[in-house]
Structure formats: C-alpha cells, structure tokens
C-alpha cells in the first residue's frame, strides 16, 4: 500500500518547474465499460479490486492534484466515504494548514489526440488513473487468452467487486502533447510495479466532429411491428404521428439510457407488449396497468401507453434515466391520441428496499397486471420479490436481458417459481432470450 501521496509521482514531482510541464486538474468523469457489446455506465468513484480503496484514493489524488498554480494557491484533499468507495476530491484553497502543495505537469494543446493501451487485471482502477492523468476518455475491454473466448461478467451493481474480465485491455485517449513517459511512471508508482508498464505505440486519433459522427451512425429504427424510433436530429414526423410506412413515431432523447430499440432484448420486449395488447383488443379487455422495471430510456412504458395501457409506470435506479425518459415521453405522446397515465419514478438501488417500494407503488396505483423488466439475470433474480409484490394475481410477466447460452432460463424459473407459473422461453436474436410467466392466483 502507498504510505503517502507524495510517493506516487516521485519522478513528476521533482524538477518539474516549467509551466510547459504541468498536470492539469481533471474533472472526474463517468466511465463506459464494454460488457457483452453494450455500453454500461459506471460512476467515477474510486473503486478497485485487489488494492484498498484508501490506497486507490491516494494514488488517484496524487495523479490528479499535483500541479503548481501561478497564484500560489494549493489544493486540499477531501475524502468522501460512501458505500464501496473512498474518493479523493480537489478543492481550491489559499494555503491553509494541512494542504498539499501542487506541482504542475502540463500537456499543452488538446485539439489532437492519441490513444494508448495496456493490459491490466484491475481495469477500473487504471481507467480512473488515466482520467486523473488528463485522459479525455478511458475504456476497458476483455482480452482473450490464446484458444479461449473472452468471458464477460455482467454485474448486478456498479460497485460489485467481481472483476469484469480475467484479462482486460484498458485504453486512454490523451491530448497529443502528453508526455507518455510521465504517464507510464505515474502508473508504475500508483500500482507499485517493479518496471515501467508498456503503453504500446500511441495511436493518433483522427480529428473529427464526434457529435456529427455519432449522429450519422444512428439511423431511424423500426421497433416491433408498429413503431419507428427517431432521435432529435432525425427529420420526419413528430412523436405520436405516423411515418410514411404507417408506423407510429417515437421521439426518444437518446443518450446514456439503455433501450432505443437497436438491441434484441428491447425488440423482444416491445413484441411481447404488442402481442399482449393485441390479445386484449380481440378479447375486448381494457384498463391494463403496466410496470416497466428498469425503464432506461422509457421506451417500453411509452410503447405500452400507445398500445392502450390505462396506466404505465417506468422506474429506474438512475435519476438521469428517469429525467430523460420523462422528456422522451413529452416528445412521443400526443395528448389527443393517448389517454394513458404515463409517469416515471426513481426506484431504490438497494435490492432489499425494492419489495417495499414495489408494494407501495401497487397500493397507490393498483396491482399491475403486466410487468416487464429488461435488465440482466443477476439483478432480475434479486428483484424477484419486488416484481412479485407489484404484480396482481394472474398478471403476465416478461423478463429479458437474459442469455440462452448461460442457463438463464433455468435460473429465472428457480428464482421466480414461488410466485409465478406457466414459464415460457422465447429465443431472441444474438443468443438473447425473453421469459414469459404468469403471477400465481394465490399471492404468496
């Protein structure tokens, strides 16, 4: 373990007096980690497996905050302790007692970028460190061993201590003027390596308009049998109107929230809703109450409202997703064409609090007779009591975000078997699957 932050960057802290060699304070950024081909957002807390959170906080703090200010101001260290994390944070002060003077280590112009990579058994810690050293972005991916496929661990919570992969490649995108030798030394010191790590040959990143590039890569999407997803920059009809091919247009905000319609699980969940509401129309049934647990972009709840739900509620543990879903709802529903009560709420992160939250929601709005959840196996298993508490007797259940090649169907049947019955497996594209079930008439 590092005994003091002054040990982290010995080479950087010595003889670094010119303003052309400074390490700017970098804002902590959210991290995107590729899991099963999907971006999964992780917060910027100082988390690490195998090294204490206090040691990581010291390493990250030292790498971020050693810089000199012409005014003589210094930065003081503040730690915030929360569940599963200990974070170093920077704040400006005027040289009061107990603060650490900062030494500048600057990188110059950031208009051109280079990317470096290295292998790591602690990818999240290394990503945090790269960001603290001035990287504009950091990412990790699985690194397959010879003759073995990449095995991805899908987490129930962001602060789950399970390693993402057995072997990982971490990349950092830095301003081109960055002194990579000093970055390598900072990594060596923070991780207590005997030798300098191999960052490989920096790759020059093409200077393009990334916003325009991303927008061009997203074409309008067909969702289910009857919907068309348009993002804010797409030309076309307003949300709630019909496209040229007769599909109902949904205007979604896009962004970090999952569920725009490009993934097989979202497609499968929407097709489930279309089938169920189609059956209702033939049977003359109305007044469905639909719960979308883990709503993400809100697309499933919005589709349910368009298909005829009387009440559709989307819940999510992330406040930005809830806010984004509400804005997408405003863009996608026309008051003249939808009579549904559609709303989005923040749900508790703690799985143990979820059943109480779901029961209170059912008491307020009435038990839900249709429950959908597009998450992943492990959180779905943990949420089984909550989804049972929300569901009315005889309610239909649809769970996806599941894999057919990992035994997820059997796991779901076992986890939900005490509350639900009549399980059915529906294969989806790419090895994904959707599981349907019915709430037992006797609520246990």
UniProtKB/TrEMBL annotation:
Gene3D superfamilies: Vaccinia Virus protein VP39
BP GO terms, sorted: methylation
One Pfam family this sequence matches: PrmA
Residue span of region Disordered: 75-102
GO molecular function: protein-lysine N-methyltransferase activity
Keyword annotations from UniProtKB, A to Z: Methyltransferase, Transferase
Presence of the UniProt keyword Methyltransferase in the record: yes
Family stated for the protein in its record: Belongs to the methyltransferase superfamily. ETFBKMT family.
Protein name as it appears in the record: ETFB lysine methyltransferase
Organism: Polarella glacialis (Dinoflagellate)
């Amino acid at each position: 373990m590092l005994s003091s932050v002054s040990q982290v960057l010995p080479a950087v802290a010595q003889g670094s007096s010119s303003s052309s060699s400074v390490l700017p304070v970098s804002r902590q950024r959210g991290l995107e980690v590729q899991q099963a081909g999907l971006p999964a957002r992780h917060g910027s807390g100082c988390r690490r497996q195998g090294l204490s959170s206090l040691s990581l906080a010291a390493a990250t703090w030292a790498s971020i905050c050693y810089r000199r200010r012409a005014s003589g101001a210094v930065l003081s260290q503040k730690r915030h302790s929360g569940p599963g994390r200990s974070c170093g944070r920077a704040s400006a002060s005027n040289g009061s007692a107990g603060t650490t003077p900062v030494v500048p280590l600057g990188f110059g112009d950031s208009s051109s970028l280079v990317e470096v990579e290295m292998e790591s058994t602690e990818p999240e810690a290394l990503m945090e460190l790269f960001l603290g050293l001035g990287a504009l972005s950091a990412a990790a991916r699985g690194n397959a061993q010879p003759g073995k496929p990449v095995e991805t661990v899908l987490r129930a919570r962001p602060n789950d201590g399970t390693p993402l992969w057995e072997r990982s490649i971490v990349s950092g995108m830095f301003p081109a003027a960055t002194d990579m030798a000093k970055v390598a030394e900072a990594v060596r010191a923070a991780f207590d390596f005997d030798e300098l790590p191999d960052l490989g040959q920096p790759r020059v990143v093409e200077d393009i308009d990334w916003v325009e590039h991303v927008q061009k890569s997203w074409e309008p999407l067909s969702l289910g049998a009857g919907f068309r997803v348009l993002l804010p920059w797409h030309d076309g009809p307003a949300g709630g109107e019909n496209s040229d091919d007769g599909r109902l247009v949904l205007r979604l905000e896009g962004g970090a929230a999952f569920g725009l319609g490009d993934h097989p699980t979202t497609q499968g969940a929407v097709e489930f809703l279309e089938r169920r509401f189609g059956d209702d129309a033939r049977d003359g049934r109305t007044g469905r109450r639909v719960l979308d647990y883990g709503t993400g972009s809100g697309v499933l709840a919005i589709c349910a409202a368009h298909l005829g739900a009387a009440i559709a509620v989307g819940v999510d543990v992330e406040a930005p997703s809830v806010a984004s879903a509400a804005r997408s709802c405003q863009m996608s529903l026309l008051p003249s064409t939808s009579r549904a009560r559609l709303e989005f709420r923040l749900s508790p992160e703690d799985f143990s609090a979820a059943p109480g939250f779901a029961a209170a929601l059912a008491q307020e709005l009435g038990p839900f007779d249709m429950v959908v959840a597009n998450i992943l196996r492990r959180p779905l298993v943990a949420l089984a009591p909550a989804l049972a508490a929300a569901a009315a007797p005889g309610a239909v259940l649809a769970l996806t975000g599941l894999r057919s090649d990992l035994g997820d169907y059997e796991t779901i049947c076992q986890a939900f078997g005490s509350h639900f019955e009549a399980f059915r497996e529906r294969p989806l594209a790419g090895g994904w699957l959707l599981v349907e079930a019915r709430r037992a008439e006797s609520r246990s």
